[in-house]
Amino acid sequence: MARINLLPWRENLRQERQRNFMIALGATAALAVLLVFLGSHLVERQIDGQEARNRYLENEIRALDRDIASIEQLEATRDNLLARKNVIERLQENRSMMVHLFNSLAQTVPEGIRLSSVKQAGEQLTIEGTTQSETRVSDYMRNIESAEWLHEPDLRIIEAIEEEDGGGREPFRFELRARVASPNAVEQEAAAAAMDEEA
């Protein structure tokens, strides 16, 4: 006798496939949602970590800016102190320079020359006077060249004096310029000039 299945097995098979498809679809959707959540959580953690690093760097940059500002202030203070030190050293050097200058003036003036005026502007010294002859002025300039505190004599004027009575003892008037500098300063300038020539 033949067996005939009258149950709707095709319908049942289709419903089971549809149910399996929906389960797979739901599982895939749940997995996708889980992956999106985990990905966003991971990205948020990375963003939080980067923001923490950024805040740390900003704090360190602010601390460095404060250090730089204090260093600049210290450098300004150092420059100010160095400038004061240099002024004090120049004053100390110039304090004895007047004594040396007058001593050099007294030692370099040869017989037959009379000084009428000595003016100083910085390192420049202008000397005016009268002389018995032009050769005495040449002797005076040689004396200045060999002096320790007077340097670089430069004759500006030498001329005959016309007097009404004609009996003047020093018939010539002269004006010359010289440079006032300590021997140490002259040696330093010579050393610097030698270094410039070598370079």
TrEMBL record:
Any one GO biological process: type IV pilus assembly
Coiled coil location: 47-94
Statement: the UniProt record of this protein carries the keyword Kinase: no
UniProt name for this protein: Fimbrial protein
UniProt organism field: Wenzhouxiangella sediminis
Positions of transmembrane segments: 21-43
Domain of life: Bacteria
Keyword field: Coiled coil, Membrane, Transmembrane, Transmembrane helix
